[in-house]
Specification:
Elements lengths: L2 H24 L10 H22 L1 H6 L4 H25 L6 H22 L8 H23 L3 H6 L1
Helix pairs in contact: 1-2, 1-6, 2-4, 2-6, 4-5, 4-6, 5-6
Length: 163
């Protein structure tokens, strides 16, 4: 599989996950308007963590077709992912919604790890910028979406502990 096929496949998986997860979440027991602030936060974060990276995975395709060097394309895409991780991590750190402390810490750590992988690519640490680091960042974003999905659907301990 070449880079373009991988990016398009990632985009399809990411959009599919967002759609499937949204349907499942909307048909759960508490979907009749009785959403806790934590649920609303997680639902929004889950959608952002799958749909924004889907968009990021499509950005390199026209840039490569325009003749921009691969290294610059991967750096720019890493910059987009890193910006999203900084924004999401800052929002999470400043969030007023009650989350279990270990959950908030785990999510901030998750953001930091993805951010680190993108900085490695952005600044060419160890090698020239390449698609593998971008794909790793995109998969990390989808993992973040999966984390929120799990807590929305299967983990009632978050709500009990936050109350």
């Amino acid at each position: 599989m070449n880079d373009a096929e991988l990016l398009i496949t990632y985009s399809e998986i990411s959009v599919g996950f967002a759609g499937f997860a949204s349907i499942v979440v909307l048909f759960r027991r508490r979907s009749t308007g009785n959403w806790e602030p934590t649920d609303a936060f997680r639902f929004g974060a889950m959608l952002r963590a799958s749909l924004l990276p889907a968009l990021f995975s499509l950005v390199p395709l026209p840039l490569i077709r325009l003749g921009i060097s691969d290294a610059h394309v991967w750096q720019f895409t890493s910059l987009l992912i890193a910006s999203y991780m900084v924004w999401g991590g800052a929002k999470l750190a400043l969030l007023k919604v009650a989350l279990v402390p270990w959950t908030r810490g785990t999510l901030i750590l998750f953001h930091a790890v993805v951010l680190f992988t993108q900085f490695v690519n952005l600044f060419g640490i160890g090698s020239s910028p390449q698609s593998g680091w971008v794909l790793l960042g995109l998969v990390g974003c989808l993992g973040l979406a999966g984390w929120h999905f799990y807590h929305l659907v299967w983990d009632p301990s978050e709500d009990a502990a936050a109350s």
